[in-house]
Amino acid sequence: MTSRPYVVLSAAMSVDGHLDDAGDRRLMLSNAEDFDRVDEVRAGADAILVGASTLRRDNPRLLVNSEQRRTARVARGLPAHPLKVTVTASGRIDPDLRFWRHGDRKLVLTVDGSLAEVRRKLDGLAEVVSVGPEFDWGRALDELGRRRVERLLVEGGGTVHTQLMEQDLADELHLVVAPLLVGQAGAPKFLGPAHYPGGPTARMRLVETRAIGDVVLLHYAPKQRQRAGGPDRDLDLHWMRRAIELAAKCPPSEGAYSVGAVIVGSDGTELSHGYSREADPHVHAEESALAKLPPGDPRLRTATIYTSLEPCSQRRSRPHPCARLILAAGLPRVVTAWREPSLFVDDCVGVEQLRAAGVTVVELPELAEEAESVNAHLFGTG
Ligand SMILES: [Zn+2]
């Protein structure tokens, strides 16, 4: 078994989304400092890949330029330059390009129909392999995995980037935005129209932003997308189900609801949990979960509290209702499943109070019935 390489897409584009202008000479989008950053990224890769049309267009050498970085690679037992890879389905390959004349090993991935032609043209300049009757990125990555490529740097062009993004095969995207406006209809774009995973509402995770002179590097993790409908609804549903399970543990009472609460840190770990009447006959779920953490715990300032019932805004048993306790703890986000009915208090305004104080409140109506069913005995239906 071989595994596919970790795929890093790298591109520089103008503010209007172009990789180049429509002219013959290559447009320099980035600056010297950023070229040096790319050289460092190349030196850390096992292979560098560009599409055949980018080779024809730009005639790049695709080498590690820094002698120090080449020496360091050799000291690690690697060739001075990464494996250079290009892909072509049409077989339109020019053997006179600089790509073939510099560096170490080269590999061409093509299709069955072009295999013989590409081999004949290159005549020993590169290894040539077919990935099947049609170009298949999955098989292309398998081929690279078999050659022990663990980290692949993809440097374009737009068609290659678009296909890898559309097929969700990019682990990292390093996008540099240069302060230029190309403004030409025929100029190549960074990405073209495609059915990208999750559609136009799926937000990629932003890992890093860095100003490098007058350009900006944006580093995204494309596979770590948030689904449509807000931040990680699946995760919210998962934690709410846990809160409802906790609600089922409450000692029964004819005079109060059974509620569960979970506090989850920004790193996705459970910080605390609680349920109604857990420690004493009057304690509420949110109160019980909060009481298990030290006052002023800094993790609370970025945490979410999941509570199966809307936090109370008034209560008879204690001076501080749960909405007030949540505000005092500094929690920025509350997720709840079930709005409090007018059974024990006339009008619970916990959600409204929290929102008015700037807290993000997410309601999960799809779990309201489950949260309520734990309390069925109160309504004479259980
Ligand atoms: Zn309460």
Please provide a written account of the structure.
By secondary structure, the chain is of the alpha/beta class. It has helices at residues 32-43, 52-58, 67-75, 112-122, 137-146, 158-166, 233-247, 285-291, 322-329, 350-356, 368-373, and strands at 6-14, 47-51, 83-87, 106-110, 127-130, 151-154, 172-178, 203-212, 215-226, 260-264, 270-275, 304-309, 333-338, 360-363. The model has no long low-confidence stretch (mean pLDDT 91). The structure holds zinc ion. Zinc ion (ZN) is lined by residues 284, 286, 311-312, 315, 321-322. Residues 284, 286, 311-312, 315, 321-322 line the site of zinc ion.
Write the layout of secondary structure elements.
Layout: E1 6-14, H1 32-43, E2 47-51, H2 52-58, H3 67-75, E3 83-87, E4 106-110, H4 112-122, E5 127-130, H5 137-146, E6 151-154, H6 158-166, E7 172-178, E8 203-212, E9 215-226, H7 233-247, E10 260-264, E11 270-275, H8 285-291, E12 304-309, H9 322-329, E13 333-338, H10 350-356, E14 360-363, H11 368-373
Parallel strand pairs: 1-6, 1-7, 2-3, 2-6, 3-4, 4-5, 12-13, 13-14
Antiparallel strand pairs: 7-9, 8-9, 10-11, 10-12
Helix pairs in contact: 9-10
Zinc ion binds at residues 284, 286, 311-312, 315, 321-322.
